[in-house]
């Protein structure tokens, strides 16, 4: 019998990132409108962008889920019906919700499938059955559930199950943290989390007066690549990648690696450790904290704490641009995001397969005048190289 593989569900923090994730293989993406989501600092989609993103994804066989996972007060809820009708009109494939009032509103006004957000902290069969009785079609389980238990919930509650496989973690049960509210006045359950768990705190031993500074509430990042076969065997329907606030390079790399790994499994029926190693190397090229498998096998403990100062500039690779066009006549035309120099070695990330190395022996501007160093937001031209297509990401190893 053919195994049904889980979908790869990637974050779409903006319309551009949605396109990147879809082009790099995500089967589905999740995006937020201007309201009702939990990422007020993301470049949330306007109505026109949502419509365009939906059309773009559907034309390529991918789905779009829209997050409505804030906990709403009555005044917020009153604004929801128009948005729900709009989402149904543009063909949203699902909405992701946590608030029972939102579930009832969506159910009453539309036929859009309802996915229960991880914010609802669903951890057991009975809770999953409850959500199903409310009309939900999928549960995004709390990150505290192991793959093994998730498989049981899927079987016994007979409902689609989505699990996080990659990305930043909360030290608290998602949706049950108010540190940000109390320390920064920013409500984490209404999209304003200040990531207070990442701050450095001082611990004082009251007996000895000894003080110690530490990042004891900051979690490592989740990475479950090596457990892919367990997810498949447990019948998990969707593998979610966290990170709507993260970069284009992140959206592209994650979508590419996880979808490539699943395609490999479809073809070969197993994973070889060498291949896993190669995919892991790719995942490590994107800015991240140390990785942990968190609670995917056993409950996370002290080993999952990231007791270090964050250092985003330590990313192994940075994105330097996007290919706008590539042909023997035009050369490789790149929109630059981060400057690079003549002679630099760049890698262009194809939608499938290994990165293509291109040395910038000659850089020209659009008038074909040679330049020695590019500037962000400009458009430049490199000599033609076969196998490069528009919309592919260009990266460079950080020095
Ligand atoms: S402060 Fe940290 S633990 Fe709390 S909601 Fe924000 S990210 Fe999660």
In short:
Helices cover 28% and strands 23% of the residues. It has 11 helices and 20 strands.
Describe the structure.
- With 399 residues, this protein is α/β, with parallel strands linked by helices.
- The protein has 2 domains: 7-176 and 220-303, Aldolase class I (TIM Barrel), CATH 3.20.20; 316-397, Translation factors (Elongation Factor Tu (Ef-tu), domain 3, Beta Barrel).
- The chain contains 11 helices and 20 strands.
- The chain has helices at 15-23, 47-59, 74-77, 80-90, 100-109, 125-133, 147-157, 179-184, 228-233, 248-268, 273-284, and strands spanning 7-11, 28-32, 63-68, 94-97, 114-116, 136-140, 160-167, 201-204, 211-214, 221-223, 238-241, 291-292, 317-327, 331-336, 345-349, 356-359, 363-364, 370-371, 379-382, 393-397.
- Strands 1-2-3-4-5-6-7-11 form an 8-stranded parallel β-barrel, surrounded by 6 helices.
- It binds iron/sulfur cluster.
- Iron/sulfur cluster (SF4) binds next to α8.
Q: Spatial order of the strands in the main sheet?
A: 1-2-3-4-5-6-7-11
The CATH topology of the largest domain is: TIM Barrel
CATH class of the largest domain: Alpha Beta
> Any idea how many domains?
2
> Oligomer, anyone?
single chain
Gyration radius over CA: 22 Å
Compute the number of strand runs. Answer: 20
Biggest sheet overview? 8 strands, parallel, barrel
> What is the count of DSSP helices, taking H or I runs of 4+ residues?
11
Level of helix content?
25-40%
What compounds are bound to the protein? Answer: iron/sulfur cluster
Q: Quote the average pLDDT.
A: 93
Distance between the ends: 49 Å
CATH second-level architecture of the largest domain: Alpha-Beta Barrel
At the fourth CATH level, what is the homologous superfamily of the largest domain?
Aldolase class I
Strand content: 15-25%
Question: Which structural category fits the helices and strands?
Answer: alpha/beta
The outline comes out as: globular
- Taking pLDDT < 50 over at least 5 consecutive residues as the criterion, the unreliable ranges are none
């Amino acid at each position: 019998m053919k195994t049904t593989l889980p979908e790869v569900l990637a974050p779409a923090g903006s319309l551009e990132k949605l396109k990147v994730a879809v082009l790099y293989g995500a089967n589905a993406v999740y995006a937020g409108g201007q309201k009702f989501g939990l990422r007020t600092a993301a470049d949330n989609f306007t109505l026109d962008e949502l419509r365009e993103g939906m059309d773009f994804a559907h034309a390529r066989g991918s789905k779009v889920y829209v997050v409505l996972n804030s906990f709403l007060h009555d005044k917020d809820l009153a604004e929801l019906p128009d948005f729900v009708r709009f989402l149904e009109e543009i063909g949203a494939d699902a909405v992701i919700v946590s608030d029972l009032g939102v579930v009832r509103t969506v159910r009453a006004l539309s036929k859009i499938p309802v996915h229960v957000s991880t914010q609802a902290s669903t951890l057991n069969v009975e809770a999953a059955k409850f959500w199903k009785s409310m009309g939900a079609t999928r549960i995004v389980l709390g990150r505290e559930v192991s793959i093994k238990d998730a498989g049981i919930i899927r079987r016994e509650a007979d409902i689609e199950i989505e699990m996080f496989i990659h990305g930043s973690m909360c030290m608290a049960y998602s949706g049950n943290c108010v540190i940000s509210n109390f320390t920064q006045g920013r409500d984490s359950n209404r999209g304003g989390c200040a990531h207070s768990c990442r701050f450095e705190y001082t611990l004082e031993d009251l007996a000895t007066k000894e003080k110690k500074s530490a990042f004891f509430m900051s979690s490592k990042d989740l990475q479950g690549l090596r457990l892919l076969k367990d997810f498949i065997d447990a019948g998990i329907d969707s593998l979610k990648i966290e990170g709507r606030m993260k970069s284009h390079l992140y959206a592209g790399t994650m979508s590419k690696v996880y979808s490539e790994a699943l395609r490999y499994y479809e073809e070969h029926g197993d994973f070889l450790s060498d291949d896993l190693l190669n995919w892991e190397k790719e995942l490590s090229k994107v800015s991240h904290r140390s990785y942990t498998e968190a609670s995917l096998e056993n409950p996370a403990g002290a080993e999952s704490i990231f007791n270090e100062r964050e250092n985003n500039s330590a990313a192994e690779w940075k994105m330097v641009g996007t290919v706008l066009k590539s042909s023997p006549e035009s050369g490789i035309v790149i929109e630059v995001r981060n400057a690079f120099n003549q002679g630099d070695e760049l890698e262009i990330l194809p939608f499938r397969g290994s990165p293509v190395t291109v040395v910038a022996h000659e850089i020209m501007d659009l008038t074909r005048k040679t330049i020695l160093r590019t500037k962000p937001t400009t458009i430049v031209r490199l000599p033609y190289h076969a196998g490069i297509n528009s919309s592919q990401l260009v990266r460079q190893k950080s020095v």
